[in-house]
Amino acid sequence: MILRPFAIDTRSRRAAWAIVAAGTAAAAAGLVLDPQRTWADLLVNGYYMLALALAGVVFVALQHLCGAAWSANMRRVAEAMTAALPAAALLMLALFFGRGTLYAAHVDLPSPKGWYLATPFFFGRMALFVAAWTAFAWSMRRTSLRQDRDGAGAHHRRLVRLSAAFLVVFAVSFSLASFDWLMTLTRNWSSTIFAIYAFAGLLAGGVAAMTLTTVLLLERGYLADVVNEHHLHDLGKLLFAFSTFWAYIWLSQYLLIWYGNLPEETPYYLVRTSGAWIVPFLLNVAVNWLVPFLALMPRESKRNRQVLKWIAIVVLAGRWLDLYIAVMPVLFPSPAVHALDLAIAAGCAAAFFLLVTRALAAAPLVPLNNPWFYQSLAHRQ
């Protein structure tokens, strides 16, 4: 078995850096010329990048805790996704400077809601959350790399313990973070299912990013000896399942609010189903669920690299659209994708690409001393 170390070509790296520079320049100019749209774009794309990075930690933690063998030889892809977590966390914390634009609805709220959403406590707990996520991701990555060097069983046991602790912390902190960053954009709006909705989106986007990265590595000759059509089939099943899970939660939230018809719940959907916003609102369901559902239903599709690659791209685009619809209607009366939106989105995507590829190149693509390595090699369905 020959495993080539990963390396990104110079042309791709330079192009990515150029896109990052262009996105940074666009954001800087936007903060002067159109601060409202720029801060909204930074929220959408910062949250998007943070969710993808967090999804990598969640995937690794779930696999370790479940003792899953099939995914052992693909976990370095998920680990590499976590490399974007510190940068995404800093971008989200930078929203402190745009709080007057994004979170003006927090002003003059009655106690105790006003106290909970006051600036010091709001951004203080955000800093605590992202610090905890980053610490867990760093510890799990470091332990995995140590396992590569000596294969000691103690490393595997530590990874299981870290995974269990992380998932408990993540369940609470990510729920509160999704409330703070997204739900509170609309004054007085509440949804008891919103945290699960955000979690479903994180899983769907994370599996899509992992699937796309794995297929691209296979197309370039990496992982060819350790990842087969059976592994791809499992990734396809996860992508199919989580996109459907997202649709189930989306519909559940909508129907509960529509049927309840409570004044503190309906404004969110009244804005998004009125006027021109109804078009992206319906497109959101088609891109995030209908397309992957129909495309991945046949067994052969889940084993086809090209189908998986393009459906993963569709789902990733759908995740961005979902966040765009969650944020933009609060600030703008009608949907319109501006050049500024695209420039900032492209800059964040290029930054994510650079961080992930750097992490992939910094360690062996396959954890050879993982106790499930040979079971993963023999994975069949």
Question: Could you explain the architecture of this structure?
Answer:
The chain has 381 residues and is mainly alpha-helical. The chain has one domain (10-377). Helices cover 72% and strands 0% of the residues. It has 15 helices and no strands. The chain has helices at 10-33, 35-66, 75-81, 85-93, 99-102, 113-116, 119-150, 153-181, 194-219, 229-260, 266-272, 278-296, 305-327, 339-361, 373-377. The longest helix is centred in the N-terminal third of the chain and has 32 residues, at 35-66. It starts with 9 loop residues before the first helix and ends with a helix. The model has no long low-confidence stretch (mean pLDDT 91).
Which key terms come to mind for this protein?
single chain, 72% helix, mainly alpha, 381 residues
In short:
With 381 residues, this protein is an all-alpha fold.
Topology of helices and strands:
Layout: H1 10-33, H2 35-66, H3 75-81, H4 85-93, H5 99-102, H6 113-116, H7 119-150, H8 153-181, H9 194-219, H10 229-260, H11 266-272, H12 278-296, H13 305-327, H14 339-361, H15 373-377
Helix pairs in contact: 1-2, 1-14, 2-3, 2-4, 2-8, 2-9, 2-13, 2-14, 3-14, 4-7, 7-8, 8-9, 9-10, 9-13, 10-12, 10-13, 12-13
Low-confidence stretches: none
Strand and helix order: HHHHHHHHHHHHHHH
Helical percentage:
over 70%
Q: Approximately how much beta-strand content do the residues carry?
A: under 5%
- The chain-level mean pLDDT equals 91
Query: What structural category arises from helix and sheet content?
Result: mainly alpha
Shape: globular
Q: State the major sheet.
A: none
Radius of gyration: 21 Å
Q: What oligomeric assembly is this protein in?
A: single chain
Number of helices: 15
Query: What is the number of E strands?
Result: 0
Give the N-terminus to C-terminus distance in angstroms: 22 Å
Number of domains: 1
